[in-house]
Design a protein that fits this description.
By secondary structure, the chain is an alpha/beta fold. It has a single domain, classed as 3-Layer(aba) Sandwich (Rossmann fold), CATH 3.40.50.300. The chain contains twelve helices and eight strands. An eight-stranded mixed β-sheet has the order 3-4-2-5-1-6-7-8, sandwiched between helices. Strand 6, helix 7 and strand 7 form a beta-alpha-beta unit.
Length: 254
């Protein structure tokens, strides 16, 4: 099948977007799929904290024309007992690299979009990837917009508070409607009392005019271990892991 590209996006940070993207990548790979996970959050890279790679090249190098995208990928699925595979590309977490990526001009940004689209084709051709997952920067940043434009579907992760709701509403109008991509909402870190009854889902769908793919309650233990493990693999029977398994099916069908 053709590679399905999915961007995980949010209006603001702290929604759990990166954790959800990494865990879903692991779930797809556990099911036998070949997955490529790209850290497109160049302002606050975090996938390297989870996987602790030692890449020959960063994704920054690829977008700057210093390597091919295949050279920036690391096989992070080895030793995880997966039926499939996970290859990941990482954003350079150094302060110098973050500053550099925040000062690019318009011409460079357009070139980066071209290279992002080319990466998608190369990943399908070279890796035979079933899924390409972008973990993007929150908000309206050129790297996020490039990832969204290169994707077949968008999973918008939000916490559901009024600040998130209002900002997300403007972002949907300003970006998502223009791009015309399939989009769905993942509500994460929601207090259990708001999950029961389903009223929160109806309200969000009416407000944003986008379907809610799933609601994940707030689990304090996940916040305590954040960034240290892939929960869907370490604790597959946990309610968080089960919720992500359900999400993986809905996202695959987008």
């Amino acid at each position: 099948m053709a590679t399905k590209a999915i961007s995980f996006h949010s209006y603001k940070g702290g929604t759990g977007k990166t954790s959800i993207a990494a865990n879903l990548a692991a779930i797809y790979a556990r099911l036998g799929h070949r997955v490529c996970l790209l850290d497109y959050d160049f302002r606050a890279p975090s996938l390297s904290v989870l996987f602790k790679p030692n890449p020959k090249f960063w994704l920054n190098d690829y977008l700057n024309g210093r390597c091919e995208v295949e050279e920036a990928l690391v096989d992070v699925g080895k030793g995880l007992g997966l039926e499939g595979a996970i290859f990941a590309g990482f954003a350079d977490p150094s302060t110098r690299a973050i500053r550099d990526m925040m000062t690019k001009d318009r011409a460079w940004e357009m070139g980066a979009l071209h290279r992002t689209l080319s990466a998608k084709r190369a990943i399908q051709r070279s890796l035979g990837a079933d899924y390409l997952i972008f973990d993007t920067s929150p908000g309206i940043h050129y790297s996020s917009v490039n990832a969204l434009a290169s994707s077949d579907a968008i999973a918008l992760v939000m916490k559901g508070d009024d600040f998130d709701m209002e900002g997300t509403k403007e972002m949907v109008r300003g970006i998502y409607d223009v791009l015309g991509r399939k989009a769905g909402i993942i509500m994460n870190k929601i207090p259990m009392g708001f999950v029961e009854g389903g009223g929160i889902v109806k309200g969000v769908e009416e407000e944003l005019n986008i379907p809610v793919l799933g609601v994940i309650p707030c689990y304090c233990e996940l916040m305590a271990i954040g960034g240290r493990s892939i929960y869907a693999l370490d604790r597959p029977d946990h309610p968080f892991s089960k919720a992500l398994e359900d999400l993986s099916k809905r996202i695959a069908g987008m």
